[in-house]
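Researcher: Please translate sequence to structure tokens.
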Amino acid sequence: MSNETAFPPNLMPDEASPDWFNKADNARQLINRLMILYGGGVKKKWAVNSAFMVLYAFACVMFCWVTWGYRMSFGSKFLPFWGKANVALDQKYLLSKAFLGMFPNATMVYFQSVFAAITLILIAGAVLGRMNFYAWMMFVPLWLTFSYTFTAFSVWCPSGFLFKMGLIDYSGGYVIHLSSGVAGYTAAYWVGPRLTKDRERFPPNNILLMLFGAGLLWMGWTGFNGGDPYVVRLDIIFFRKASVIGAVQGMITGLVCITPAAGVVEGWAAVIMGLCSGSIPWTTMMVIHKHSEILQKVDDTMAVLHTHAIAGSLGGILTGLFAKPNLNKLFFGDSAHYIGLFYGFDDKSRIGSGVRQMGVQFAGIMFVVFVNVLTTTIICLSIQMVVPLRMSDEDMEIGDDAAHGEEAYAIWGSGDRHENYFYPSSVNAAFELPVTTN
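Model: Translation complete:
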């Protein structure tokens, strides 16, 4: 689609809407990104560090995104898997029609920036509790530039080679969840594990806050999700207790699994995907991982590999099975090129198309895994030449106070080593006022 159609200049706002502009679509796109992640899910001593990693990721991604990242992901083709770097701040460009949808580039730039930021935040979940914050500051722009833009352009941009092949990824099962799961696991390997006692016991600092965040997450995701996780039931069967953390993890795997399929499968298929997403990632995390020496060598703090990479891959495969031609036509505009294998068997003349769709879905998984293992490894090794990837054992023992000189739940006068520097013992000391005595 052409990006040349822009808002006419020198017109009043009500007169400045071109024929292609849909105000309702534009408004919905701007408010549809309500997300909060893992706020209370980490150990108390890492609450500040995890929140700061998230804040930095959002801020850094927004700058990089509008300066070069968006056009590398959704702009003119430079390579079959990569767009040309360019700014997305020019008024004419921002007010021109986006590559898809009935709204301007300005809306699409903002909307897609949150996807990019969330992907980095999910990666952070794999390295919490030991990654050097300065290394994280370097990792975010490098990974956004040399990994995220590859998959976003390949899968979502009409010029990308996987998009042209017919890969179905409705809302990020590949671009966000599979990418973050693989990249997070790879980064966790290079950063190294947490302290032994942290690996053995890493309780959430605030389960109520975690539930609150999970509720907001589900509410924000519900517009394109229908899968029911059911994982709390598995916890009851195997551990005789209903686990809050298990329920939240199950909710996330259900949301992740349905993400690539949300607009192209029927309700009954979404229920099946929910059942699968509540059992298969649970099995890989609670059974296979615990009995695999290879998997246990990598310390994935928030189990990003299972909740995002495994669930995202599962969603992509099941999408290839259950994608309905008529729904594909609504979203892609061509039902002949996109058909789930289930419907291919139903229509004998299209079995070949259904088999092809499954092949494309698997090819997409292999591409995303390859790109993220390779680029994440190169980025981590490059950063390690400049700053340590990992905190010192002493800093990891202390946590937030060592990393940032602050604590999430500080008790005044607790005696931590940075307390006197950051928190003077009196208002007089803070403002360097003279102390008078009687």
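Researcher: Any highlights?
Model: The longest strand covers residues 77-79.
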